[in-house]
Amino acid sequence: MERIYIGMGSNLAEPAAQLRSALQALASLPDSRFVGVSAFYQSDSLLPGQPRYTNAVAALDSQLTPLDLLDALQAIETDQGRERLERWGPRTLDLDILLYGDRLIDEPRLKVPHYHMHARAFVLYPLAELAPADLRLADGRLLQDLLAACPFAGLERLPPI
Ligand code: ROI
After folding, report:
1. Ligand 1 pocket: which of 10, 18, 55 to mutate (most atoms <8 Å of CB)?
2. CA distance 128 to 29
3. Which of 61, 91, 102, 157 is catalytic?
4. List of the chain residues with pLDDT < 70
5. What is the pLDDT of residues 90-129, one digit of tens each?
6. 31 catalytic residue (yes or no)
C-alpha cells in the first residue's frame, strides 16, 4: 500500500455536497483504504469571473496503479456531472492525484507531484492537516518550505460538517 493524497475541488452545484459525495466514492474504491480528509476550505477562483471554490485534500492507501487510480477518479468526476467544456472552466468536481507515495511520475496523462500544487494555498494548507510534518515531495521539496512561501490569505476554513 502507498499513501496517496488527492486534491478535491468544486465550484458548481453545491460544492460542499459534491465533495461529500466524492468522499463516499473514494471510500468505496477497490484495493484501497480511505485514510482521512482535511477540513473544507473556500477561496476565490484563480481565474476571474468564476464562482468561489470549495477545496479539500483526502488521503488514501491503495494498491491501484497510478493510471488505474486516475481512471477511477475520472469516472467519479464524470458520475458527478463533470463536463470538460474548457480547460480551466468551472466544474462540479475536480479530483487530482497530488502525491503517490514517493513516486515521481511523468506520463502524458499524469504528472506527480501535481504540477500546480507547490504554490496553491487551497492545496497546501489542507494537505498539511493530513500529512506528517516532515513530508518531503518526491521532487525533494519540503511541505513546510512550500507552506512558508505560500500565504494563507484568501482561504476560508469552513467549520467541520
Ligand atoms: N481556484 C480555486 N480557489 N480552487 C480551485 O480548485 C481552482 N481550480 C482551478 C482554477 C480555475 C485554476 N482555480 C481554482 O482549476
Report:
1. 55
2. 24
3. 91
4. 161
5. 889 999 999 999 999 999 999 999 999 999 999 999 999 9
6. no
